[in-house]
User: Fold this.
Amino acid sequence: MIPSSYYLALSAIIFVIGVVGVLVRRNAIVILMCIEMMMGAAGLAFVTFSRYLNSLDGQVAVFLVMAVAAAEVAVGLGIIVSVFRHKQTTDVDEINLLKW
Amino acid sequence: MLDFAWLILLFPLLGVLINGFIGNRIGKKWVGRVACAAVGLSFLVGVGVFFALLGEEHGRTVSLFSWITVGDFQIQAALLVDQLSTLMSLVVAGVSFVIHVYSIGYMAEDERYSRFFTLLNLFVFSMLILVLADNFLLLYVGWELVGLCSYLLIGFWFERPSAAEAGKKAFLVTRVGDFGFALGVMLIFATFGTLGYAEVFEQAPQVLTTGLATAITLLLFAGAAGKSAQIPLYVWLPDAMEGPTPVSALIHAATMVTAGVYMVARTHVLFELAPLSMTVVAVIGAATAFFAATIALVQNDIKRVLAYSTISQLGYMFLAVGVGAYASGIFHLTTHAFFKALLFLSAGSVMHGLSGELDMRKMGGLKDKMKTTYRAFLAGAAALAGFPLLSGFFSKDEILWRAFNSSIIPSASLRAGLWLVGIVTAFLTAFYAFRAVFLTFWGPSRVDEEVAHHIHESPRIMTTPLTILAVLALIGGLIGIPHLSAVEGFLEPVFAHHQAVPPPPAPPQPGGGSGILEWVLMALSAAVAILAIILAQYMYLVNPDRPGRLSKRYASIYKLLSNKYYVDEIYMAGIVNPLRNLASFLSRVMDAGIIDGAVNGLAAFFGRAGEETRKLQTGYVRNYGLAMLMGVVVVLGYLILR
Assistant:
C-alpha cells in the first residue's frame, strides 16, 4: 500500500502551487483557477483520509467541497465580468480604489 | 432688650436690599433716606441695648439660628452682646450714621448714587457682624465681607485705573493677612474642637501650651496687621485714598481698620497666654506708629497725611492692647473714630469747595472762606494732636501711661522704650496735624485761579455732620478721664482677668510714687503736643520758607520720607514682580507648554499613528492575500508547535 504521506504531500504541493499562483498572477481568471486548484488539493486530502481511515466521511466532504467550488466559481466569474465592464481590464493590480 | 440685638443687624441689611434692588427707581432722595434710616435705627437699637446692659453684669449670647451642623461640629449663627461688642456697635453705627448724612451731600452729583449707599450699608452690616459675632467663623465671615466692601468702595470710581488698582491692592494685601488669620482660626479649631468664643476662652488656660498659644495668636495678629494696616501690611491704606472721601472716613479711619484692634481685645485671653505675641503686638504697634508719623510729615496730599496718620494711630491702639491695656486701646479707637472721621470729612469738604483739589501746596487762606469746615478741621487736628483736655489727649495719654507701667511686658527697658517711641510719635503727630491745618487754612492763598472763583462753604447737609463730630472730638474724652474712666469701668466685665494672669495695674495708691509719675507723664504729653503745635506754627506761618530750606539741606532724608521709604517699590521688586514672573512662567511654560503640550501631543501622537497605520490599506488585492497567508501561517505554526 502506498503510504498516505505520499498523497498528502501531493495535496500539499498542489495547494502551495495554488497559493503562490493566487499571490503572483495578475489575471483575475487565473487567480480563480488557482483557487480551484487549492480546493482540489483539499479534496484530495479528504479522499486520502477517507481511504486510510476506512471511513466514508471524507468522500461525502468532497461532495460538499465540489459543490462549494462550483458555486464560488459562478459568483467569482460574475464579479470579474462586472469589474471588467467598468475597468476594461482583468488585471488585479488595477483594482486599487479601496485604498487610503 | 438684649434679645432684640439682632435688629442692629437687620436694619442695615434691609437698607442693602431696598437700595440694591429698587434704588434706581425710588430716586436719590429716598435712597439717601433709606440708607441713613437703616443705620440710624441700628444705632438706636444699639443705644437701647447699651442701657439694658448697664443693669447687667455680663453680656448675653443671642442665638439666631443653627448654621452648621456636621456630626459633632456645630456652629450657631449667634451674637455675643456684651459691653465690648455693644460699645463697638455704637461707634460703628453712630459714626456711620453721621457719615451717611454727609454722603448725601458729598455724592449728590454722582451717577451711581444708589450703588454707593447700597455698598455703604452693606459695609455697616458686615462690620456689625464682625463685632457682634459669637464665634470665630462668624467673625471671619464679617472680616471677609468688610474686605470685600472695602474693595468695592475703594474702586467705586472704577473708570479711573488708579482707583481700580488701589482696590485690587487693598484686597490682595489684606488677603495675605487674612490667610494667616484663617490658619489661626483653623489652628484654634484643631486644638479646641470648637470655634465659639465662650468655649475657647474657658478652656484656653488649661488646653493651650505657650507654644501653641503663640502660634495661634501670631497668626491671628497677621490678619490684624493686614486689616488694620500695621507693618508690614499697611501699604494698601494710603492707596485706598482713591476712594470717595466718605469711604476713607468710614472704612479706613473709623471702622474697618479697627477690626484688628477689636479682634485682639476680644481674644485677649489667648494673647495673655503667649507673652511673646503680646510683645510682638506692642512693638509692631509702636514701630508702625512712629514709622507712619515720619512719612506723614512730608506728604502734600491732604488725604495721604490723614491716611498715614490713621496707620500711626492704629499703631497706638495695638501698642495699647499689646501691653494689656485693652480698655485704653478701645477708648482710643473710639476717640480716633470721632476725630479721624471728622478730619476726613472736613478734608472732603475742603476738596468739595476747591473743586477737587487735594494738594495742600495749592491751598491756603481758607479759614475765612470756609469757616465751619475750618473749625471742624481744627477741632479734629487738635484732638489728633492730643491737645490737653480734648478726646485724643485722654486716650493717647492713657495708652502711654499704661505702656510705661504695663505688667505684661516684663522688661522695664522695653516699656520705657515703648513709651519713648510713643511720646516722640505724639510730638510728630501734633506737628503734622497742625502743618496740615496751617498749610490748608492759613497763610496766603496759593489756590489756582479758576478754582479760586468757586470757593464756597459746603452745604449744611455736609457741615452739620462735621459739627456733630467736632463736638464729640472735643468733649468725647471726658468719659475716659483717668481714674474716673467710665470706659474702663464699663468694659471691665469683659476684660476681667482669670486667676492665671495677674490683674492690670491698680489705680495708684494715694500719695504713692506712681501717682505723681502718672501726672508728670501726663504733663509731658501735654507739653509735647503744645510744643509741636508751636513749632508747626513757626515753620509754616512765621517762617514759611524754612521747611523748603530744611528739605534741601537734608535732601536725602526728605526724599526717603516723601517716597515712603520706598516700601512700595521694595515690595514690587521683591514680592510682586517675582510672583508675576513666576505666574507668567507657570502659565506659559507649565500650563500652555507642558500640560497643553502633553494633551495635544497625545492627540497628535494618535493622529500620526493612525496616519502611518492606514498606509496598510494599499488597495492591492495581492497585498491583502499575502497578509491573509501570513496570518494563516502564524496561526498554524502556533497550533502545530504548541
